[in-house]
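Collaborator request log, item 7. Partner lab (contact: R.S.) asked for a structural prediction of MSP domain-containing protein to inform their binding assays.
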Amino acid sequence: MPAGEDKQLISVHPSDLKFIFELEKQSFCDLKVVNNTENHVAFKVKTTSPKKYFVRPNTSVLQPGDSCLIRVTLQAQREYPPDMQCKDKFLLQSTIVPPNTDVDDLPADTFNKESSKDIRECKLKVQYISPSAQGNSGDEGSSDSNSTLQQLKEDRDAAVQQTLHLQQEVVC
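Returned to partner:
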């Protein structure tokens, strides 16, 4: 790890973007970005495939200790990638800016490495998850998201059952 990367200005959760991939359907992944410093920090999200993804906000300024949610939307695709593997990557750049800097006032070279600013970078990988792989433990790389998805489904089903039970109690 290069010397400048040991203390990030911001942290990003989750560290990988996971999209449920279905033909002709959009899918999205939310990232939470947290400013870990006592400074105002500007960030910008870049990707190797800008036509495939819609990122909002893709640039912003966070106050000290503040956080924001970034929604990354995978546009509807017409064909499956080979072996459902995705080589797309995202780069989240961050740098300290003066207090009260508005995102619209950021200089054009804010995230230019040649501008002699201290720019930190965080790389994010992209994973595609097949909707048919839900519950299929043989699918490497997506077992974490599958178990999370399975847990969410179980929680939802339990909540539905509890709602029905409460409705029956109210009626009786």
